[in-house]
Design brief:
Helices cover 44% and strands 16% of the residues. It is an alpha/beta fold and 419 residues long. It folds into two domains: 31-175, Rossmann fold (3-Layer(aba) Sandwich), CATH 3.40.50; 185-337, NAD(P)-binding Rossmann-like Domain (Rossmann fold), CATH 3.40.50.720. Strands 10-9-8-7-11-12-13 form a seven-stranded mixed β-sheet, with helices on both faces. The protein has a four-stranded mixed β-sheet with strand order 1-2-5-4. The radius of gyration is 20 Å and the shape is globular. It binds nicotinamide-adenine-dinucleotide (NAD).
Length: 419
């Protein structure tokens, strides 16, 4: 099953449980707009290389399109459609006034120089600038895109429309309109949700073992925050492999080694293990913070965690989701667990639109309130419908989306910015 089909399955399961009007499901099963662009870029060796880029705008029923863009060799339209769809549901779960979108470029960012990445980013903006904008579609970082890339994006867009437009993209460096707290927002939001779950179930971090798959922006900060809260970090992994130590490891030491030597596997904090095997090691909490389709029919029976926190988008297949949930594993779903990122992106955008910037305490307080309320609403729906947390999260989002659709009417989303 493809990532997009998997996402549709999650939607269909929730729609069935809540007896959703089939027209709402039908409408949200089709992205509103899809753009595929070819991006010719002059590489450092003087040769021209043409890259394929995507922007999928899934729904603007609840506000402007919003969603990150990624640079990765495996990027394709199916993946971007799935991620754009998830964004619509993620924004609806938190109640922030956005729709959903996603973008990406098929490329090998690790082998490209800063100059090549800058030229590629500027070409991407030139190709899609007519469909993005602070009141239309607001991109953000995702896998292998970072604040520097967002700064290039903002700069190129501002040049094309001939005015300074920091609100066209979020996740920017603080110096050019970024927000304090954005870098750690995805992990911090995940922590707030996990804390709510732990409080509801009278659980205590002491003595609880955690494995974190993916040691990038989301995973590394999550490992750090959980370590500070007295969870024991027993495993980590990145694209080169895994590291395990049942006695616990220091994420700061691992981060230092990754920075110096390129991978967590070079750290002496634990023993090297295969990247896939790390998911099957004993632990209480498994944080999936790498990429989609990691827990599937192939490895679901070997998962030992009691709780899975999906910081990555779509890391659990529909089959694995069903199997694990039936076997008592609690899955805190992506559209809730990683929604802290888009929530602080929303704060960044609000600050850009007002040209007035908030201190970190205000960002954290507002983020905590939104994440806690989203969790509480989902916990109640889970109880009412006797369903999984994922189904309850989709039900929570469908409820808001259905109301917006009823209020706006059938054709509300057909505005197009291109002349
Ligand atoms: P990133 O590029 O900063 O880090 C990705 C990490 O995953 C890297 O350490 C990489 O080595 C590792 N990785 C890649 N393939 C792997 C594999 N097969 N096994 C183990 N590790 C692997 O990306 P990120 O921003 O941290 O995003 C990670 C996930 O979180 C993605 O699914 C992304 O969509 C999701 N997410 C990110 C944000 C955000 O604000 N950054 C927000 C919401 C969701």
């Amino acid at each position: 099953m493809s990532f997009y089909e998997n996402t549709l399955h999650h939607m269909q399961a929730a729609a069935k449980t809540m007896k959703l009007d089939h027209e709402v499901l039908e409408r949200l099963s089709h992205p509103e707009k899809t753009m595929i662009v070819s991006l010719p870029v002059r590489m450092d060796d003087g040769k021209l290389q043409v890259f394929e880029g995507y922007r999928v705008q899934h729904s603007e029923l609840r506000g402007p399109f919003k969603g990150g863009f990624r640079y990765f060799p495996d990027v394709d339209l199916d993946e971007i459609k799935a991620l754009a769809t998830e964004m619509t549901f993620k924004c609806a779960v938190t109640g922030i006034p956005y729709g959903g979108a996603k973008g990406g470029i098929k490329c090998h960012p690790k082998t490209m120089s800063a100059g090549e990445l800058e030229r590629l980013t500027r070409k991407y903006v030139q190709a899609i600038y007519q469909i993005v904008g602070p009141e239309h579609d607001i991109p953000a970082p995702d896998m292998y895109t970072n604040p520097q890339i967002m700064a290039w994006f903002m700069d190129e867009y501002s040049k094309l429309v001939n005015k300074y437009q920091p609100g066209v993209v979020t996740g920017k460096p603080i110096e050019v309109g970024g927000s304090v707290g954005r870098n750690e927002a995805t992990a911090q939001g995940g922590v707030y949700v996990l804390q709510e779950y732990m409080a509801l179930n009278n659980l205590n971090p002491e003595g609880m073992n955690v494995i974190v798959q993916g040691f990038g922006n989301a995973g590394q900060i999550m490992a750090d925050l959980l370590h500070d809260m007295n969870f024991t970090l027993v495993g980590v992994s990145d694209s080169k492999g895994g590291l395990y130590n049942s006695k616990g490891m220091d994420p700061n030491a691992i981060a230092k080694t990754k920075k110096e030597k390129g991978s967590v596997t070079q750290s002496k904090e634990g023993e090297q293990v295969d990247g896939e095997a790390i998911l099957e090691k004993p632990c209480d909490i498994l944080v999936l913070a790498a990429m989609e389709n990691q827990v599937t029919e192939e490895n679901m029976k070997s998962i030992q965690a009691k709780v899975i926190v999906e910081l990555a988008n779509g890391p659990t297949s529909h089959e694995a989701d069903n199997y694990l949930t039936k076997n008592g594993v609690v899955i805190i779903p992506d559209i809730l667990a990683n929604a802290g990122g888009v929530t602080v992106s929303y704060f960044e955008w609000v600050q850009n639109m007002q040209s007035y910037y908030w201190p970190l305490e205000e960002i954290q307080m507002k983020l905590k309130r939104i994440m806690s309320e989203a969790f509480q609403r989902i916990a109640k729906l889970q109880n009412d419908h006797h369903c999984s947390m994922r189904e309850a999260a989709y039900i929570s989002a469908f409820d808001r989306l259905e109301k917006a659709m009823t209020l706006r009417g059938d054709g509300a989303n057909l505005r197009c910015k291109i002349d």
